[in-house]
Amino acid sequence: MQWIHNFHNSLNGMWVQAICRENLGKGKKTRFMKRSPRFYFALLFAKATAKVMKLIGRKGTSMPGSWAIILCPDFLGRMPRPKYIIGITGTNGKTTVSNMVEDVLTQCGYEFTCNRSGSNVATGVASSLIANSTLFGKPKKDLAVFELDERSAPRILPFIKPDLLLCTNIFRDSYKRNAHVEFILDILNTYIPDSTKLVLNADDLLCSSLKPSNRRVFFSIDPLPNDVEEAPTLVQDVRACPHCGATLEWDLRRYHHIGRAHCPQCGFTSPEARYHVSAIDENARRMTVEGPDGPRQFALPNTSPINVYNALSAVALLAEFGLAKDRIAQCMDQLTIVESRFSKVELKGRGLVLHLAKGQNPIACSQACANVQQAPGKKTVLLLLDDAHDAAHSVENTAWLYDTDFEFLNQPDILQVAVAGPRHWDVAVRLLMAGLPQEKLIHWEDPHQAAAALEVEAPDTVFVLYDLYSVDLAKEVKGKLLQRMALLPPKEPQPGKEAAGHEN
Q: Which of 29, 291, 375, 482 is deepest in the core (most CB within 10 A)?
């Protein structure tokens, strides 16, 4: 229930952060507190809530944790932790990487607590710990793997104190919640425990600057033959040297601020990586990763840069956890993309691709548009980018549209772009400003009307780009589009590589 989260955020969240600030301000490590009667009452009430939710057929993945933190605001600080905790955070890719890491660990025979079926904020982590504990809170498993929302770091990290923490990247996200990249960077620098070992993206100068006094290892992608020196993306949040303030010179910029840079004035440069991709075989969809024990090939879901970074970060994290690279490679050969993030159906010589774009997140949405641009053949696109929750309240700032590279959709082989949702006029104006010809653009408030009007006969592939919270709507639209495509005559498939996709 939303009111529970609002109540927790407005009252108890401030209390928890005050506890963290007090300890950090005094130079103390946040220690686990003694269990009190209040803690045990909250734990038992949360377990009872989980039972009731199960009996009535509701998932309630955050509800037990919500009640636990309402009843005992420092619940996470009092809850006994598993012996070893792996954390995965970052703006984009953390869900994909968490799923990959968990799947590999499962194949290797590990039993662990995780929040895969729940949320990645404090209430979701609490719910996972509650579900995997005894009646009095003792962990049932010695290992935990948690996907962690970077904005929620103050309420999670000082208490669970991960032993190993991966940060995939730090980008702009929802303005309403995440403000600016340096705001998130400051949060992580403040609340990541000094004892945590970090696995960081060397090609992200924000991410790689985290906690310089901690133990850190880096991953990177070497310059490759298909790289461009300067990516045509609008947003570039790293321009000045973090040491002296001089303008950085980029040796390679793959997209936004991802790449390799150096300072001509003070000599600052991107860090050297322990794990780095030296080659990518696009046909076989494999990458070669160089590491301390030599090169090894790993399977890729596809070869888009974001998916390569996701797979590489999972390899680096698992290797630092202690798994042999040969074993990691064997397990990754068996992995599949989660259908809620990317799926492709072939019907009568035409493709229908559902591709997560994460509305309100300009970087993830830009990369989804870039993947459409790079796909072979003729294409049409349906954009379902409105957040289902914000649509009811109409409060979201639309500035993110102007940080998104919709220019990628202004291509001769993209025959039509359809927009649907409460903000269809806003998105349509932005597309016109990106140069899209008006005759290629249609827009409706009703997604089903847009799906009915979208051209599906002429293109080789129809793309549906949808928001993280519009998965069910995207599936409905997919069904209607497939019904229309089933009535068409067969089309000869076009030669070329598969449509690329990326996950967030």
A: 375
Q: For residues 238 and 205, is the Cβ–Cβ distance under 8 A?
A: yes
Task: For residue 288, list its beta bridge partners.
Answer: 279, 297
Considering only CA atoms, give the Rg of the chain: 23
Q: What is the pLDDT of residue 339?
A: 63
CB-count exposure of residue 446 (10 Å: 0-12, 13-18, 19+): exposed
In 3D, which of 288, 167, 181 has the Cα closest to residue 218?
167
* Residue 217 backbone phi and psi in degrees, to 5: -130, 155
Each domain of the chain, given as residue ranges in start order, spans 1-91+102-178, 196-336, 342-486
- What one-letter code names the amino acid at 355? H
- pLDDT at res. 388: 55
- Residue closest to 61 by CA, chosen among 70, 50, 69: 50
Give start and end residues of each alpha helix (H) in 108-253.
Answer: 122-131, 153-160, 175-178, 181-191
10-residue mean pLDDT series, the chain (504 residues): 44 46 43 78 95 83 93 95 98 95 98 93 96 95 98 96 98 84 96 98 97 98 87 90 93 94 95 98 96 95 91 98 97 81 90 91 94 95 79 68 96 97 94 98 96 96 92 94 95 60 52
Closest CA to 343 of 404, 314, 302: 302
Contact 436, 430 (CB under 8 A): no
Q: Dihedral, CA atoms, 160, 164, 168, 171, nearest 10 degrees?
A: 40
**342-486 sits in which CATH class?**
alpha beta
Instruction: Answer for the pair 252, 205: CB distance below 8 angstroms, yes or no.
Output: no
Q: Which residues lie across from 258 on neighbouring strands?
A: 204, 255
C-alpha 158/C-alpha 244 separation (Å) is 31
Whether 220 and 316 have beta carbons less than 8 Å apart is answered as no
Sheet holding 197-201, edge to edge: 112-114, 143-147, 84-89, 164-167, 197-201, 216-221, 275-281, 286-291, 294-299
Angle, in degrees to the nearest 10, between helices 153-160 and 181-191: 20
Residue 433 has what pLDDT? 98
Question: Measured over all CA atoms, what is the biggest interatomic distance in the chain, rounded to whole angstroms?
Answer: 72
Record the pTM: 0.88
- Among candidates 323, 335, 416, 433, which has minimal Cα distance to 378? 416
Burial 239-265 (b: 16+ CB within 10 A, else e): eebeeeeeebebebbbbbbbbbbebee
